Fold these 2 entries.
Entry 1:
Amino acid sequence: MKSLHPLTWWIWSLLIVGAVVSANSSWLAGISIAGATILVWRFAADAPWARSFWFSLKIGAFILIIRTLVGILIGVPIPGTKLFELPILPLPSWLAGVRIGGVITQERLLSSIHEGLIIVAVISLFGAAVSLTSPHKLLRVTPVVIYEFGVATVIATSALPNLVQSISRIRRARLLRGDENPSWRSIALPLLEDSLSRSLELAAAMDARGYGVSRKRSRYRPISWRGIDSVVVLAAFLILSFTLAVFR
Amino acid sequence: MINFSRVSLVYPTSTKTILEDLSFEIAEGEMVLVIGSTGTGKSSLLRLINGLVPHHTGGILAGDITVGGVSTQLVRPGELAHLVGIVGQNPAQGFVTDIVEEELAFGMEALNIAPDVMRKRVEEILDLLALAHLRNRAISTLSGGEQQRVAIGSALVMNPKVLVLDEPTSALDPIAAEEVLSILHRLVHDLSLTVVIAEHRLERVIGFADRIIHIAGDGSAEINLPEEILKRSEIAPPIVHLARALGLSDVGLSVREVRRMTEEIRASGKDIPREVGQLGEIAIRTNKLSLTYGEKKALNEVSTQIHSGEIVALMGRNGAGKSSLLTTLVGINKLSSGSSEINGIKSVDLKGQVRRETVGFIPQEPSDLLYGQSVQGECQQADRDNQSAPGSTFALLKRIVPSINPETHPRDLSEGQRLALALAIVISAQPKVLILDEPTRGLDYQSKALLISLLKNFAKELNRSVLIATHDVELVAELCDRVIFLAEGEVVADGPTLDILLSSPAFAPQVAKVMSPRPWLTVSDVMRAVAE
């Protein structure tokens, strides 16, 4: 599974998102969340970016809860089976048409959950695409113009953890000198010096390794589109056409 | 291959001449070692070879340097990338990408080399440096030795004629250092690569060097065979000091040579009585101390006691949990279970002034402790912190390094002076326990001798305890009474220095290897044994 083209999962997730949105069915949304979970659980590499799916699920759950609460508390009442009733919050007269509280019906609850689920499905499908694709691989299939920019981004992202490390190291050293609440100045100065010397070091290393000497850059291990990629994309495409045909 | 003709170098902000009228030639397939005290310009000399000095640093360069016939003055460093590979002092700071394979390919991509050629070369390097099983790993998860190998690999992958290394083993444990050096040795012999290497710990590299460039510090430099240079040089590995102390006619460079010369001494030397010191009260006590980072166990049920007046070394591979133990002792880490206390105070309760007066800690980068604008400012801050008489910290510092200028910015101090300043600040609070993490990294022999005498005084005269995490077996042999050996977060050996160091060949100091099976660790041990 490792050898899939980096764009495959992105196209796949876009198509499935299209299917979920066009079908507007919470069943399909639920199935696609479950499917994405299985795919990530089964195929994601053990890498930092693979965690983004679980993170997106957490965000999704959070949104679902907030969305449902807001949906049943505020808004237009939908008639139907009454579940329970909340006191109506008195609002000033210029907010006419908005109501907080009131009768909570089963229909109102279900429609809130339904809309929430579709949002969660969209988020988790994007999360799955991020998790299943190495950003470095993705970078390698981008056009050359963006590529230069991308190389800079990769360097910046690998420098960020260093910065975080330096901050905690220096904070620790301040604590050790018995300074329980180190001032920003006493941390910022060594940090600035530290990151400056690091970046100079990095620039020297890149210079010594020939960065920027040639106008053109070649790419290590060009990535090709293969049969399995077409199969995955085609499957997603079929699902989309099916939902378009059936739920119209 | 490398040709320096009448080279002089001056940096713009300094009046000191770094190099003056230096001429030498290095042939293809030679391994040349650059030695000199800290701050004498070893790194500058190395960076002159690929033009990083002065192209990247500024400075005035007179004379001409050519590498493989190309003058470094006329081209940018990047245009020499296919000729000269350079590996910096701290490889982690030079990594550009975060996956091993991509790091190896980075330089070739920049030079627009065809993908199939790149694939082939990367495979070759992965095999050559035994990195194949790490190819898809994130670099940040590798050990120090592996990172050093990746750095060497990413320089070698460009097929350079010259490889330049700045202190390649300073951060490595003895076994990882041995591994890196033997790879270099093989490259010199198999591929006729020219290697220029700067290193403080001569005992590690001296056996591999064909010639030595000795930078004196006043601008002059000498290039000659190792035997010739080491006959006179102040900077010398322990076996050379041994040969001098014993009055041998020749200096041997390998353990084997010196063993042959000292057969008689091994046979006739007397046993030296073991000193059994009185143990003081317990200063550090840990009981079943465990610490976990995420799912990784950094420390696993460490139980130990350290008494006052003891100097203890904490040894073990890179990543064995040494730093974790030290930072837990001083109360920075939250422990998962067990207990640790210093002088009866729980580590986690150490705060502010109490911490300062109980335990002094010198981190791996002593400069982390410093944030003042001048040496004077730092010392005054320490005086205020400790409510001691103004000038007392500076007086202490003066005793350690008499030549220090109070107006200097801490960043501009040499490695040894910076450590001295950090030590003066920490000791001025008169802590009961002193803890140091890798203090000899980047220190020359002179600063190391100073550190040893300072710590000995602190421990023995004031009856305080010292705990040092280090890879430096020579330091341990000279200084420590006891060694605690950690592996995978567990204590695997704990005992007198003599027993621990002699039990494993990789950790035995040079003198002990020469004198094996007699239990003498240092030159002074041997001298005591042969004295009538």
Note: Chain B has a mean pLDDT of 88.
Entry 2:
Amino acid sequence: MTVVYRKQGSVVRWENGTLVRVTESGMAIEDGNLFRCFPFRRAVAQPPLSIRSGGFATALLKVERLIITHGVAHHECDGRTWSDETKRFHMSLVNGGIRALIDREEDVERIADALARAEQSEREAPARLRLAPNVTGALLPSLVESVPPNVDLFQTAGGVDGRGNPIVEARGNWPNWYRPSYRTRPVRMPLNLQLRCDVTAIERDRPVAVALLAPPDGLTLRVLVDEGRRAYPATVRVTRIDAVAGERTWYPYGGGSFGAEMML
Amino acid sequence: MTRFAIATRDELWLRGRLSETRISHGEAIHDESGITATDAPADGLDDALAAASGRDLERMRELVPGDARVRLVAIASTEETSATMTIGIAGLFVVTSPEHAREDEALLRAIVAVEAEGEAVDYRGIPIVWRNGSASVLLHEAAGHPLEHAHEPIAWPPWLDVDVPLRMRRETFRDVPLLRMTRVTARQHDAPFSLPERRIDVLLVNGGLYEPLTETVTLRIAAADYEGRRLPPFEIRESRQAVARALTGAAGDPIRYPGVVCSREGQELIVGSFAPVMITEFR
């Protein structure tokens, strides 16, 4: 079966002080085992995209990396057409030898506050810990291969996938396609993952892992733990999950992931 | 105002069959307002760049081994041209050029012909002999990246000269140019050299990393021999100062290492890598 996909789009990106505006259009053809892609000349109107940069409450900390993007894209695949608009934010914030990774602008202030108080030396992670939604969002793609028995990990229904098919609720045997660019061969993988647990009550007095200090290594997380009076780096191995809160926030990890506060 | 134009062809071959093929081209205009990039420039495409990348791709296709995983990347831009073949066999790979593809493929085949056995060893306290130019990867991380980050110079052995030209480079027309290495060439001048009987011989490196916050160098060793056996892959992690202190000797002229694809800020660039046989001893 031959699958033909066309995409045209425009993005504005603020990358560490440089404003970049990109317009492109391209075509991808999957023909059996062969994937081909190339630019497909078509007039692309530059939509009125804008980004705001700077003004973050990060006093005493160094902004090592700040990338903000706003893009629109129009897609066509086997007669189906759809459009989307994306906004992304990535910041790495530094205190001494510690780097916090932030992928949602609304998380900056809380993480910057803890990072400014952080000790430089790693400590043992508390036995009972909360994970902030931005941390669990990054963890979910790693849980796919080893879901603990007391939780339900599933793909959230809604929107369309990289072939224009409706994204359906699914558990395993992922039916939808992830295609972040027309240059990338689409792959089946879970999109917009979320995790549910019968226990949703979170004990507020537990220390909280407020930020990732490195991308997850499977189920091992290097995080910034905030105990209130002090904050420090620690390494957490997720072996069991006690509770998952009901409120969820979307993060751009893997094929999309809904982070929710979690209790270990 | 500066204008950058680029044409890229890349292909993935799996066991002699074409699996993926891509064409990419575009232009970036950099002025006081930033970078404006498009794949459809108003003045049309740069046909000479497109033809050059196409010619290089054709040349590489003829050299694709029928039993390997091979990625071909031909780039022609207003700043540089390159033709790169990443040849993978049995999980190991070399990054080479059409000129050296046969020789580097033979090196890779000789390395993968020996299987790892036994336990890993703690490399500390054991002299390491860096063969096949692989010390250039160590110096890429320990000397090259600190230069890119404008880190303070450190003391290197007086017999060692490391030449690392830097310039603004970018992977695609969509990227922001960064100050990057173009090449790492290490030379020794009357260095001490005595081959230790008990030693680790590093043959192939799988990748490396320089952490600018802690000035730590990490190298993933893909193939190394020790006491008559092939070691399982292992990692070396040291500060750049420890790397400089560990260098105890070198011999001969710089040897071309088959390839370093350097990734920074998501932009992958080829960096030529040359170093003599060198010895380190970490304590």
Note: Chain A has a mean pLDDT of 92.
